[in-house]
Amino acid sequence: MPVFEATVQAVEEAIVNAMxxxxxxxxxxxxxxxxxxxxxxxxxxxxxxxxxx
Length: 53
Prior knowledge:
By secondary structure, this protein is mainly α. It contains two helices and two strands, in the order H-E-E-H. The longest helix is centred in the N-terminal third of the chain and has 20 residues, at 2-21. It is flat and about 45 Å long. This is P1 family peptidase.
């Protein structure tokens, strides 16, 4: 069904956008969440054919 395919594509796009836009940040008690290195992210997306051209 087209509606389900569109939903999957929209969710995938949102996840990739979140990974690209993420920045390293520090939270409570000094805990850190590190941003993904963009070169590694792009390499991984290409490996699994998930990068739109």
